[in-house]
What does this fold into?
Amino acid sequence: MEKLMTLVNTALIGQRSPLEMEEKLTWQDLKHSLPSGLGLSETQITSHGFDNTKEGVIEAGAFQGSPAPPLPSVMSPSRVAASRLAQQGSDLIVPAGGQRTQTKSGPVILADEIKNPAMEKLELVRKWSLNTYKCTRQIISEKLGRGSRTVDLELEAQIDILRDNKKKYENILKLAQTLSTQLFQMVHTQRQLGDAFADLSLKSLELHEEFGYNADTQKLLAKNGETLLGAINFFIASVNTLVNKTIEDTLMTVKQYESARIEYDAYRTDLEELNLGPRDANTLPKIEQSQHLFQAHKEKYDKMRNDVSVKLKFLEENKVKVLHNQLVLFHNAIAAYFAGNQKQLEQTLKQFHIKLKTPGVDAPSWLEEQ
It folds into this structure.
């Protein structure tokens, strides 16, 4: 206390400001000036506001309270500063990660729960690349004769027969389309020839009857040819639906079955290689993961095999029914046409509900229909 009074007197005599003298007052002097037995934790520094012109007051006194360890010094800000800090604190939300996120209103979103779409896409690409690599390795191993493949002899035989029949049906379809094109050209020629005979029949009085007979014959042949052409086109449409839609849909399922079989064999081979290796803390998790993937692809393979079996069964039933009707139609129409039996030819078309479009006759307008 004597040093403190000496500094104050010196400041008054030398006309120095208290701030200049305060700089000379060191922390050690302040500590020695405190009463004995009073520690640093027993000192409270109180400020009366940022806008107050008075200096801070240091209060020292005997420590009262529980014999707990000394607490650090506490600085009590002014009311204005406290209100500002309270407003800023209300806008701060601490997420689970420990980082502060400033928000104004609305629901609180934790940063740890946000999913990154780019990472999800990257994970999908990684899984796809790994699956493609394993399947490619399996295919190459099978072609080189080094890898084993799962074979269902009965199902594979049915698939081979289906593919062979598809090629044969496509050949029949191609020939029937060629026949239809040639028949259309012949009918068109017969119609033109009949018109020419009819014109000469009117202009040549000497050969009126002869030209007339030939004109009627060619027109009748053209009419019967149009009827036969309608039957052949109906046959072509039905066979085309069977080959390019029904059988093709079944073959698409067969392709999916073969892809599932390759994946199943690839993961089966991978699991067998891991089982042949050592079993330790590093390989056991890989074996469990490989076992899980193998079981998933096995279930997929079994499901696709059942789907192919069911589709082949329904396809065989549908194929027999469709081809039976179409072959009867084709035979009866061809036989009636070349036999010259016009009534039998027309009866065949009625039997299969085939309607012919009369050439040169447009469809009735909406006003005529009403």
Notes: Strands lie at 43-46, 57-60, 75-76, 92-93, 101-102.
